């Protein structure tokens, strides 16, 4: 039986669940969440059967992290790896992934996402609905590229950074760790780690 646990029962997890069912027809999905209030319920017909303790009864199980928050998702992946679980990736069949691009464990490509030649995406990277990552981009662990965002060629993005919905970055720019790039921003200069930047062109908000 093709069985997988989905870690997370929020809005992002519902998107991942639908993509997973399309990518792996017939898969049996069991949902886990750290919030006990969700236990015993269902999410899109899949049982929400408990929290991480439930996993400990299934050593070596396959788990897809589906937590929207970048820090929490990456921490969960590290916990799963250290606990001996197999961290899955999910590529929605309506996404396009270059044969020469690479994805780390726990990565998710949403419907309409495009990842082009030579791009390297780390662990737990989300490329959300209709976003595009062009050739030779390098995205570190825990990055989230929001819906409709566009990265030109050779852009580098640091750990856990969020690129907001509809934002863009021109070629070869570097955006550091733990940044937030606001919705609709145009990144035309490098952005240092920890910065929040908005606008066209994007300016760092101190
Ligand atoms: C499927 C999904 O939903 S995936 C979700 C992906 N997530 C996103 O895309 C979220 C992106 N987040 C944003 O763009 C946010 O607005 C942020 C992070 C830039 C700012 O959030 P906050 O710190 O809460 O700022 P806040 O809403 O209080 O606004 C502060 C000021 O910045 C302005 N501002 C906020 N966002 C932006 C933006 N994207 N571009 C330009 N100005 C902005 C506000 O208008 C406000 O201006 P004012 O002080 O003149 O009134």
TrEMBL record:
Family: Belongs to the transferase hexapeptide repeat family.
Endpoints of the signal sequence: none
InterPro entries: AcTrfase_PglD-like, PglD_N, Trans_hexapeptide_repeat, Trimer_LpxA-like_sf
Name of protein: Acetyltransferase
Domain PglD N-terminal: 3-79
NCBIfam families: NeuD_NnaD
